[in-house]
Give the backbone structure.
Amino acid sequence: MSNTSFFSFGPDDGFISKSHEGLRYRDLPPTLHQLIVSGSVVDIHWAALGSVRESWVLSFKDSEGKSNLGWGTDTPKRLQDILKSTAPSQHLRVTLGPKQSFLAWSPDFIRWRDLPEDLEDALQGWLTPFGWRDGPPKTVTWGKHSAYFALSEYGSVKWGAGAAGDSNTWPIFLETTEEWVSEPRFDWSTVAFIALDPLIMDQFFVIREDGTWAGSIEESNEDALQAFASNFFRKAKARTKTGGKSGQPTSSVSNPVDAIPDAAAQALYEKWATDVASGFASALTASSGKAKGPKKLEIRSQSHNSKPGIPLVVNGGANAKLLRTFPYLPPAITTCMLQSCAAPKADPFGLRACKHDVERLLRASGLYSFEWLRQERLRWHPDRFGRLCAEEWREAGKKLAEEMFKIVGSLINELKSP
C-alpha cells in the first residue's frame, strides 16, 4: 500500500487527495471517477488534476497487483505521448498547470512543457550533462501569473508569488512565505508538500515536516483541507469530546494549567481576535488591489492543541479597507496596576497596555503555548503590519505593532526559560 500523501486542485472546486486517512475527492472528471470506482484500482500512488475537465493523470496499482497509468482525453497531448512510452511506477510524479503546461518526473527522467520561465530556469539549473547536480524534484507546483514553488531532493529551492504588479501577486501565499522566512533557523528543505491551484489565484496548500501548515481555499473545501493536513504524516487520532478542528497533525503540546481561561476573559479574547482577523483580512484584500473574487478561508496552524484558532476570512469585496486605527486590547483586560506599568499605559500614542495585560488576553485564548505565541508574534511584525496600513497612518501603526511584537517576543522567551 502506497503511503504517499498528495492534494490536487481541479476545476469547479473539485479536488482529489490521499493521506493516511484514505482517499478523498469532490466533483472529479466523470472518466476519472468511473476508473476509481470500477474495481480496477486497488491503490492510488499519485493523481493530478488539470485546468480543464478531462485533463487528469492517475498512477495506481490495478486488480492484478501491477502499477498502471490512466489519463483523460484533454490531458496535454505531449504528456499523453510521454506516458504511453513510460513504464508505470509508484515513483512517477505528474503536475498539471494552467492551460497545456505540465511536469512529469521519476528518479530516471524528467519532461515538461510551458512552465513559468523562472521555474524552467530552476529545473535547468538542477541538471548537468552528467545527471542531477541538485537532485531530482521533491515537489514542484505552479499556478496563474507565474506563481511557483520548486524544491529538489537535495534541498535547493526556488519560488515566486506571481508576476510583477500587485494585481498579479498571490498575497496570502506571499505572506505565508515571508512569515516562514522570518522564523529563526527556518529552512525551505523542511517543506514536505505544496500544491498551487492551476486555475484560482492564491489558492494553495503547504505543509512542513514539523506539521506546520498553511492554506487558502474555497470555504466549501475547508474541512477537506484540514483533514488532509491532520492526516498527512499519519492517521490522526479521534478527537475527544472537547476537541475541535486543528491545523496540526496528531502530535500535541500541553498547555500550562493556568492557560485555561475564565468565561468572561475568553469572550473578550474571542471578540478581539475576530475583530483583528476581520480587519487584517479587509486590509490584505485592499492592499492587494484585487477585484471581488471567490471567498477564501486562510487556515493557519496555530498550535498542536485540539482547540481551533480564529480563522481569517478574506472576502475580496468593495468594502475592503486599509488599517487606520490599531486594534487595542479591550479595556476590561488592561487592568494591571503595577506602578512600573502605569507610565507606558498612560501614553496616548502607545499601546495602552503592558506585558501583563497582553499575557492575560492571550492566555484567555486557551491556546497559550510556545508554538502558538510564535505564530501570534508573526502577525505583529512591523513591516508586515505596515503593508496593511493606510499611508498617512503607516508609521504610527508600525510603531504600535512593534510594541506588540516585542511584548509577545518577551512572553515567548519566558516560556523558553527553565
The two ends are 44 Å apart (CA to CA). The first strand starts at residue 6 and ends at 9. The CA atoms of residues 179 and 185 lie 12 Å apart.
